[in-house]
């Protein structure tokens, strides 16, 4: 699908010659300018050694583990050859072959070699015993891994012939050559343990501890301790509950734990330097070093403390099942960069610091219904979940207006101008606060601070993001004789997607309007429009980040369905097999409701550059001998 001007043609009429559509560029060449080929050769060797030893001198004690060493290599050869378009002489009608504007004049070649290895080792000591009505399980473990990688790259261009695609056949001109390479290594180590206890399956408790070592931090800040504990009470096992015979199972539970996060760039705790800052000394080009980062020796683990309360119940032999969870998480020491500004001429970047605090809380409810007493058996399950984040502290600069602060709002909340309509005519512009050079057909932005001007101080922070606060689903399974049917519905709510930054919507100089954007646009004859005027400009008053282009991403999708049939046993045994099942299934079949359906967007994608979930139909045969 091409989202370009409708008068652009891929080929000259009546020929198979690609046509230049803008300058010497072609629609087709934007798609296939990378003529040539790419060959990827991958070699992987995997080894794993397992062991399990039941220690004979202590009942219930065992020792098991595994070790592996996995080297691998990937060699990539990319040979790019020129792409051409054809120019037509208006006087003679003769077509002349010429290079496409985005292609290469002569062939070029790059060779890339990736080498790496992974070493992994884990060992676990387990103890499992029952003493009367007491059950005890103890686990102690050790884990480590080491990763090494090497990368080499060579490039040459201006191949006079495409017969020999080897680096040595490329140009000998140093300006037509380049090479690069890097190496890295990393290692992790952790100790872990777990104790489980239950009394008659009625009172349950679990304690865990992890001690993790990360290569991301200095030796004095490298280790983090992450404990957790949980407890449960199966109330339905108590004697006083026996009179409530409609309750098959009832349990309450709670947990509290700490988790760690170290997903930051490597070596931020030391001063880093970069090559490439060359100097001319004595008439020669000399490679130099330059400091690239400011070290933070105190950087350490981010921590997330989570508490959870839950309820599990099964009533009337499965006629009603209930699972409910409430949780609250506080992430502290969040690894992020401060908002301080470093002058660009220094060439330095700030390191991450443990400065942020974010809360996240919500609940999940699952209701089920089972009926296995009749010939038609079925199972229903519905779920709904709500989760909301809140920034407690972030190192943000003081805002001129309090409504622009990110603190106190969900993660990812952003600033937008509030669109409140479309200017019908110049008289309305003159009577309203507006952007400089506003024209009829432009978006009306609200003067939030009432100062008579439309500027950055009128941007408001929108609480909804592209992360849904509400998710829900419904599954059903039916069985009748040898037939079975199942399906899944999936949806979300309280989410927004912003699409204003993409030229199919805004219609930049290369773009072509989408129908929903063009149909109700402002024109002199249609001033009561919901969309701004058409424009060939790259930027104008309507390209500002505003709620005009902020769309509701709520939806309900018919996600999956499967119909199957198992041949009767007396039939399959006659033909010498154990089981035969045939089935047909589909995924992403259709959307039941969707606020973007008429706009050409899929609510589960963020813009036009990504494929939406694909509709897939499968036919299957499961045969067991």
From TrEMBL:
Compartments where located: Cell outer membrane
Question: What GO CC annotations are associated with the protein?
Answer: cell outer membrane
Per the record's keyword annotation, is Isomerase included, yes or no?
no
Sorted alphabetically, which Gene3D superfamilies does this protein's record hold? Answer: TonB-dependent receptor, beta-barrel domain
Question: What InterPro entries does this protein's entry cite?
Answer: Beta-barrel_TonB_sf, TonB-dep_OMP_SusC/RagA
Q: Which UniProt keywords apply?
A: Cell outer membrane, Membrane
Question: What NCBIfam families does UniProt report for this protein, alphabetically?
Answer: OMP_RagA_SusC (TIGR04056)
**Name this protein carries in UniProt:** SusC/RagA family TonB-linked outer membrane protein
List the source organism.
Arachidicoccus ginsenosidivorans
The opening ranks of the lineage are: Bacteria, Pseudomonadati, Bacteroidota, Chitinophagia, Chitinophagales
């Amino acid at each position: 699908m091409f989202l370009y001007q409708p008068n652009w043609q891929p080929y000259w009429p009546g020929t198979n010659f690609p046509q230049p559509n803008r300058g010497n560029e072609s629609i087709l060449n934007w798609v296939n300018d990378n003529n040539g080929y790419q060959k990827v050769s991958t070699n992987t060797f995997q080894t794993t050694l397992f062991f399990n030893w039941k220690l004979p001198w202590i009942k219930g004690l065992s020792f098991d583990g595994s070790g592996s060493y996995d080297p691998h290599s990937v060699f990539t050869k990319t040979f790019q050859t020129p792409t051409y378009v054809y120019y037509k002489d208006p006087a003679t009608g003769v077509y002349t072959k010429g290079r496409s504007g985005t292609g290469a004049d002569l062939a070029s070649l790059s060779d890339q070699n990736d080498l790496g290895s992974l070493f992994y080792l884990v060992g676990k000591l387990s103890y499992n015993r029952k003493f009367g009505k007491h059950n005890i399980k103890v686990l102690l473990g050790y884990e480590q891994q080491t990763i090494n990688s090497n990368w080499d790259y060579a490039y040459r261009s201006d191949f006079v012939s495409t017969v020999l695609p080897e680096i040595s056949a490329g140009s000998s001109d140093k300006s037509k050559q380049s090479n690069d390479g890097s190496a890295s290594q990393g290692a992790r180590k952790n100790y872990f343990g777990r104790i489980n206890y239950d009394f008659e399956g009625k009172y349950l408790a679990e304690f865990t501890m992890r001690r993790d070592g990360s290569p991301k931090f200095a030796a004095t800040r490298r280790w983090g301790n992450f404990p957790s504990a949980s407890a449960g009470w199966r109330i339905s096992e108590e004697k006083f509950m026996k009179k409530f015979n409609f309750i098959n199972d009832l349990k309450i539970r709670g947990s509290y734990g700490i988790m760690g996060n170290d997903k930051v760039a490597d070596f931020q705790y030391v001063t880093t330097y970069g090559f490439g800052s060359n100097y001319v000394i004595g008439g020669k080009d000399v490679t130099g070093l330059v400091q690239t980062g400011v070290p933070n020796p105190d950087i350490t683990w981010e921590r997330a403390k989570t508490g959870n309360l839950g309820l599990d119940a099964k009533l009337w032999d499965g006629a009603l099942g209930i699972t409910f969870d409430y949780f609250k998480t506080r992430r502290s020491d969040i690894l992020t960069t401060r908002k301080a500004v470093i002058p660009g001429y220094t060439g330095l970047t700030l390191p991450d610091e443990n400065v942020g605090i974010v809360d996240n809380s919500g609940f999940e409810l699952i209701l089920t219904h089972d009926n296995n007493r009749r010939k038609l058996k079925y199972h229903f399950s519905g779920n709904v979940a709500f989760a909301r984040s809140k920034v407690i502290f972030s190192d943000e600069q003081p805002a001129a207006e309090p409504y622009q602060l990110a603190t106190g709002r969900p993660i990812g909340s952003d600033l937008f101008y509030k669109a409140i309509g479309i200017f019908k005519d110049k008289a309305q512009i003159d009577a309203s606060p507006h952007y400089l050079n506003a024209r009829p057909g432009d978006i009306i932005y609200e003067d939030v601070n009432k100062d008579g001007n439309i500027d950055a101080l009128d941007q408001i922070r929108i609480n909804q993001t592209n992360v849904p606060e509400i998710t829900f689903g419904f599954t059903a399974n039916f069985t009748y004789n040898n037939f079975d049917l199942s399906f899944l519905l999936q949806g979300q709510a309280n989410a927004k997607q912003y699409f204003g930054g993409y030229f199919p919507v805004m219609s930049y100089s290369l773009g072509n309007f989408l129908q929903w954007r063009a149909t109700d646009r402002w024109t002199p004859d249609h001033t009561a429009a919901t969309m701004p005027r058409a424009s060939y400009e790259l930027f104008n008053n309507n390209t500002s980040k505003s709620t005009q282009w902020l769309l509701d991403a709520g939806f309900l999708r018919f996600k999956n369905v499967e119909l199957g049939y198992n041949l009767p046993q007396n039939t399959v045994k006659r033909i010498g097999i154990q089981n035969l099942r045939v089935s047909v299934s589909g995924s992403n079949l259709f959307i039941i409701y969707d606020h973007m359906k008429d706009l050409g967007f899929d609510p589960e994608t963020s813009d036009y550059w990504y494929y939406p979930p694909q509709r897939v139909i499968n036919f299957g045969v499961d045969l067991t001998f």
